[in-house]
Write a structure and sequence with these properties.
The chain is α/β, with parallel strands linked by helices and 195 residues long. Helices cover 33% and strands 24% of the residues. Helix 3 packs across helix 4 (136-145).
Length: 195
């Protein structure tokens, strides 16, 4: 007799994460976005913020659905110690792009998988990117496209933003919002995906 598979809950509102999971054949049983405060703590660096928010989101949903596997994730863009979140306005998006212009930055995603028995598995994945030098016209055109909305760092690599990337080292899917290799490894470790 085949054992019933445990339910998988994605604790994220990101349509990009859901799409990425689908690329590797993972379809969560439910999507329950966690309502958590994403404000960085005083002196919190990008890596610590990504890890904390992924765990906080997973924990919040696990309290509501304790009998399921809960997958939480959070992506942060860092320039040095500075955190570039989701721009609140077109002006802020333009300032983010100006800051990224001609320089390297890091995209860090924390991934946390909570099991019903309380065990947790976590990964922190960093991708290093460098943008070309952007002209003012390029920045204005990109901001005018609206792609910056809801995107950490003010750009989407899976869309027009990829044209600015002159160097990338690490996971491309991480920059989109979920490192697929590491996430699949966590799900295999929990017995949800076949090895």
């Amino acid at each position: 007799m085949e054992q019933t598979r445990i339910r998988l809950i994605l604790a994220s509102a990101s349509p990009r994460r859901l799409e990425l999971l689908g690329r590797v054949g993972v379809v969560p049983d439910a999507v329950l976005p966690a309502d958590v405060d994403e404000t960085p703590r005083r002196a919190e660096v990008p890596r610590l913020l990504a890890a904390r928010l992924a765990a906080t989101k997973a924990e919040a949903v696990a309290r509501a659905v304790p009998d399921a596997l809960v997958l939480g994730a959070d992506t942060v863009v860092g320039v040095g110690r500075r955190i570039l979140g989701k721009p609140a306005s077109a002006d802020e998006a333009a300032s983010f792009l100006a800051m990224l212009s001609g320089r390297r930055h890091r995209v860090i995603t924390g991934v946390c998988l909570l099991r019903p028995d309380g065990r947790r598995s976590e990964r922190l994945v960093t991708t290093i990117l460098a943008f070309q030098r952007l002209t003012q016209a390029q920045i204005e055109d990109y901001v005018g496209s609206g792609e910056w909305q809801g995107a950490a760092g003010g750009y989407q690599i899976q869309r027009r933003g990829e044209a600015f990337v002159r160097f990338l080292s690490g996971s491309h899917s991480n920059v989109v919002g979920l490192p697929l290799f590491e996430t699949a490894q966590l799900l295999r470790g929990a017995g949800w995906l076949r090895p």
